[in-house]
Design goal:
single chain; alpha/beta; TIM Barrel; six-stranded parallel β-sheet; globular; NAD(P)_OxRdtase_dom_sf; NADP-dependent oxidoreductase domain-containing protein; AKR2_Oxidoreductase; NADP_OxRdtase_dom
Length: 244
């Protein structure tokens, strides 16, 4: 997380989604203070796990991020968002959430959800959240989508109401990520980078192609894109001795 934007002292890496209270406790004791979760992880039980651990630490030394994930990909109302935030606060056993995000914004329509933004204003005034953000893995699955990751996140930047964006960064094809990060910096928007393993995806798709199974057009096209990216990344692998 870009701590310059939020003026928060945040560790360079986060806890990941914790699945063990004892592991999370050890992670925090080792110096990691950024903890990220969602109301949708294990149907809220992940927030409960985190709450049971962080209550034993100084709250102002931690940076807690969670996300609202509406059914059918739409919030019903501003009250719906506030209700969700109150539920997260209760499960996390805290009086405030440092970063409250829209979970998996898969199109530009989600970016401009006024129900979320109106609720966020209310929650900020009540000091129940400090910052707002948006996470995005890319567009909705399927070849018919006309929007890509850059379209969605650039729309979020132009919207001007988000403090932080949470996105994947593909080191095999960094151009899009670099453009997004540059735009965020120019607009004083914080950034978080999520896990990405393009090499594993390429290996999985290569195995599928070599297995002789019937492959649909979408998978074929995706494999071709990965293959091209792997070839272009050869210099990267050589530079960091990753050829093995």
């Amino acid at each position: 997380l870009n701590s310059f934007i939020t003026c928060a002292m945040v560790s360079d890496i986060g806890s990941g989604v914790p699945t063990s209270g004892s592991v999370l406790k050890a992670v925090i004791e080792s110096g990691v203070n950024f903890i990220e979760t969602s109301e949708s992880y294990s149907n809220g039980r992940n927030e409960t796990l985190i709450g049971n651990v962080i209550k034993n630490f100084e709250r102002d030394r931690l940076f807690i991020a969670t996300k609202a994930f509406p059914a059918m990909k739409l919030f019903k109302s501003s009250d719906d968002v506030i209700r969700r935030a109150e539920g997260s606060l209760k499960r996390l056993q805290t009086n405030y959430i440092d970063l409250y995000m829209v979970h998996q914004a898969q199109n530009t329509f989600r970016v401009k959800d006024d129900y979320f933004h109106k609720a966020a204003e209310i929650l900020k005034k009540k000091e129940k959240i400090r910052f707002t953000g948006l996470s995005c893995h890319g567009p909705e699955w399927g070849p018919e989508s006309s929007e890509n990751l850059e379209d969605i996140l650039m729309a979020a930047i132009d919207d001007g109401r988000f403090d932080v964006l949470f996105l994947p960064y593909n080191f095999l094809a960094p151009e899009m990520g670099e453009r997004i990060l540059k735009a965020c910096k120019e607009h004083d928007i914080g950034t978080m980078i999520m896990k990405s393993n393009p090499i594993l995806a390429y290996e999985n798709y290569t195995s599928m192609m070599e297995s002789g199974r019937n492959v649909n057009r979408t998978d074929q096209k995706y494999y071709e894109g990965l293959h091209e990216a792997m070839q272009e990344a050869d210099s990267f692998f050589k530079k960091y001795n990753m050829n093995d």
